[in-house]
Amino acid sequence: MDHHTRSEPEQLQPEQLQSAPGTEQTARARMTRRRWVAAVSVGSTLLAAAGFAASQVIKSPAQAAADTKPPAADVLTAPVERRVLKETVVLRGTVAAGQSVTVAPVASGGEGAAEPVVTKLPVNAGDTIRAGQLLLEVSGRPVFVLKGELPVYRDLKPGAKGDDVAQLQNALRNLGHGTGNDPSGTFRAGTKSALQAFYAGLGYDPRPAVDDDGEAVKAAEQGVRSAERALEQAQSAADAAAPSPSGTPADGEDGTDTGGGGGGGGDSEARRAVEWAQEDLQTARQNLTDAQAAAGPMLPAGEVVFLPGFPARVDSVSGAVGARVTAGVMTVSAGRLVVRGYLQERQKGLVRAGQRVEILAERSGTTVPGKVRSVSETLDEGQEQDGTSEDGSDGERAPAATQGYPVVVEPDKPLDRALAGQEVRLTVEAGSTDGKALVVPVTAVSVGSDGKSAVTVVAADGTQRRVQVRAGTQGDGYVAVVPLGTGRLAPGALVVTGIRQAPGGGA
């Protein structure tokens, strides 16, 4: 038998059992013992497994306390960088025209002076309009648009003077209606003629400046005629009272004055009457000049809307033909597109006119540079719409705030007219370091009990040291720092930014 081969238990064959008396009982005893050994082995294995399982569920008080201890702390670090740092303010704004005007005309008083009614509405929302175009008709009177920066605030009548008159003259000349020799800013005959021609081109008669059917001019003309006749009579009487060329009296052969006043006295009175008649004629002619100057067409404030540039746009139309004019009928806008937003109290001190701005049209993903044109000093008391985050950065659909200090941003190049009315994201460059500076995450700077700011530098061997710093410009989660005293801080050095709980820590 091979000693390297494990022997198998002997199995007695039936013939062997028959030939060997007593061996059957011996074999059965051996088999019984083997079964008991196997059963004990299996039981031991099962008991061991049960004990292991119990050990995973049942813990000693010491083990339970050890397992519930907080995990070991881990230090978070970030490298010191050297770069230009910009401080930014993010807000949302709405693209709008440089000037928006609500057209709310009021019919001038006149025949029947009833409540104004829309009688014609030739434009629709979204239409492009040009200078000199008819916007609507109210109670039979036109309302048109002209080019100009100044809003209309008074009726312009012949004889008026001012910048608004000069604006009207420029608008009429741009439409091809010359104003003659009228001085700029003075409403005279040339301006009247141009205004008359403009109204005729629209198919309307202008309202008269003096609503008297020309009676004032007629009366003045009659006064001139009467004064001229009176002067003629006075002149004739003076001629009759003058001495004859021969030096003899003209009345009687004996030289007596048949008028009873003496020759010299009659001539003097006649000359005085001529002078008075001449003065009366001069006054009558001046009255006629004044009446003629006051007469003619006028521009009612309710019939014109001035816009700074063209083409302009009809933003909305709220009226309809037949509707009574109780409020604005339409809104029109013109001029270069700008962005209007609102600054919150905490942001106002950071933003001022002239600062650079990035305008992001989120729908198209395009950006346009611009600058802050103005920041209002007056708080707008509108309501902030729900869903707007404090910094305006909560997503593309966040509505712009309507409460705060109005700010106007002007793009460096014209915005696409399709952006009118859309919301955009504004990133204002509120401050910047003077060139490259040492910067660290904001969370790396802490203030000690002495009130001084410092950062904690971690060396390669894990040792730490505090470096006192002076914090400067802050932006995008970073802050510029300058080491103070003997502290050393270099780009690439690691500074502590926080503590992280190590997962799976504990005894």
Explained architecture:
With 507 residues, this protein is α+β, with helices and mostly antiparallel strands. It is 27% helix and 28% strand. The protein has eight helices and 20 strands. The protein has helices at 14-19, 23-57, 61-67, 163-174, 189-202, 215-241, 263-294, 345-348; strands spanning 73-79, 81-83, 86-103, 118-120, 128-129, 134-138, 141-147, 304-307, 312-317, 330-343, 356-361, 366-375, 405-411, 423-432, 437-441, 446-447, 453-458, 464-475, 478-483, 494-501. Strands 1, 2, 15, 16, 17, 18, 19 and 20 form an eight-stranded antiparallel sheet that branches. The chain has a six-stranded antiparallel barrel with strand order 3-10-13-12-11-14. Strands 4-6-7-8 form a four-stranded mixed sheet, with helices on one face. A hairpin with a 2-residue loop joins β6 (134-138) and β7. The chain is elongated, with a radius of gyration of 52 Å.
